[in-house]
Design goal:
The complex is a heterodimer of chains A (294) and B (254).
Chain A (H helix, E strand, L loop, with lengths): L1 H25 L6 E10 L2 E11 L4 E5 L6 H8 L7 E6 L8 H7 E4 L11 H11 L4 H14 L15 H12 L6 E5 L7 H18 L2 E6 L2 H7 L2 E6 L2 E6 L1 H8 L4 H9 L12 H13 L1
Parallel strand pairs in A: 3-7, 3-8, 5-6, 6-7
Antiparallel strand pairs in A: 1-2, 1-4, 8-9
Helix pairs in contact in A: 4-5, 9-10
Chain B lengths: L1 H16 L1 H28 L5 H23 L1 H7 L1 H6 L5 H30 L8 H26 L3 H17 L12 H9 L1 H14 L8 H28 L4
The chains are: A alpha/beta (294), B mainly alpha (254).
The complex binds adenosine-5'-diphosphate and magnesium ion.
The site of magnesium ion (MG) has 4 residues of chain A, from helix 2.
Amino acid sequence: MLAVVIFSRRKWRIIQAAFRRQQPKSMPPSPAIQVENLTKSFNGFTAVKPISFQVERGEIFAFLGPNGAGKTTTIKMLTTLLRPNDGKILLDGFDPWQHSREARQRFGIVFQDPSLDGEQTAYENMELHGILYHVPRQERAPRIEALLKQFELWERRKDYVKTFSGGMKRRLEIARGFLHTPGILFLDEPTLGLDPQSRNQLWTHIKTLNQQEQTTVFLTTHYMDEAERVAHRIAIIDHGALVAIGTAAELKTRTGTDSLEAAFLALTGTSLRDESANAGGDQLRRFAKMWQKR
Amino acid sequence: MGAIYIMWLRELKRYVRSRAQILVSLGQPALYLVALGYGFGPVFAKAGAGSYLQFMAPGVIGMTVLFSSVFSGMAMLWDRQFGFLRETLVAPVPRLHIMLGRTLGGATVAALQGLLILVVCLIAGFRPHAWSAVLTALVFVVMIAVVFAALGSAIGSVIEDMQGFQFLMNFLIMPIFFLSGALFPLKHLPRVLDWITHADPLAYGVDGLRGVLIGNWMFPWGGRIDFWFDAAVLAGLAAILLALGARLFSRIQL
Ligand SMILES: Nc1ncnc2c1ncn2[C@@H]1O[C@H](COP(=O)(O)OP(=O)(O)O)[C@@H](O)[C@H]1O
Ligand SMILES: [Mg+2]
């Protein structure tokens, strides 16, 4: 009797171990994101030098870099908003510039700069997104309700987004990004302008999504502690070039430092960067363009 | 299909919700109607051309639809500025659907504005030669709306700032309005101007409206042929401009 229990327990462990080992094997071979020699320049200024990297399925991958390093430009190229000058991109094996619809169906994105419709209510913004991303009608309402409640916007669902505070807009933007469940989630400085509570909430949600649904996450942030907390691997980009890539521990060992922040500074230097590439940078650039044209 | 519908609905909601703006945008054509209609009326009558109000009312309807539809397309400038355009550009639906929804939404709003100003014209004393003509006139209201909403979308896909917007207003949309025959008959004009007016899309819309409403056609072939000619020109233009708008919209980069 006892032997049976021991035997079955052991057997159970063996099964578990086998299952654990098997999981990576059973995944399809193509990585979630594959980038080779990706390049972008704006009128002679190279914003992204040829960069190459790979993000595995189910990985949380953080892009760290000072202002103007080329993080947003890279994300725009990955998400069909900006055509690269050169290089190869594969999302789930699809070239987003040749099979844009297949690629777009596979990712979700929270932009760095606002992208909400201020003239519609919070609920209408969510609903529009749900329709554009083919969330089935029966699932739409309950998911919208759950997300709006989670990000504490449910009471304000009938208010126009233009009446929201910056933090509320940001939360809505993030809730919207979670409405459909994409295989790959891009988050461009998602925590910018959020209070610590919402930030915590966001990362918890992302970890859960990543564990339960194997969502691949590609994020950029300025906060080292966040990157260290959630990311499996971290890439450091500076002046459009990748200067390091690895786990937080690896980066620290490589630079002989004891914190990610110290490692980051060791890799990118301590000089300040141009502020215009910060949030709202798009707006500034547009004004600059306006003046140049005259 | 869902994408077309939801983008169309967005335009309609925006229209219905901005009640103040509806009144404001009707103010300009109403002013034209009153100031020019009553102001030029006596001169027009003395020249033996009949009632100026009767003549210009279809023109003012065409003008209302023109501006309303072009503006709705150019409103893309604001969606670009406030970032909402990005949300629709990365969605996993053909950009053609997004563009069609926006354009048809803008056209619907413009057609509604056209109907409202028609009512204003009736109140001001305009009388169509038959009441059934009002229904036929709707065909032209809708076609003008689609043609210029498509033009607006094409323009909105290309311009990125207010300068571009003002440039196109002054050098494209205003000439389209003034040379369309909305305010004066396109007869006995210098030859160059005559050519230009025949290249003006709105001229065919205004001619259609005027022909249907008061039986006054620009071309000499007789009502029925004139009707189909104007309609065919507008339909052709609508197809061309929709294709152009779709192409330009699909190429937007941010
Ligand atoms: N549309 C544009 N036109 C010109 N320069 C641009 C444009 N977009 C980005 N840049 C420049 O490219 C560099 C990288 O910008 P970005 O990718 O936004 O940096 P970040 O890493 O802060 O997200 C910056 O120097 C920025 O000024
Ligand atoms: Mg950025």
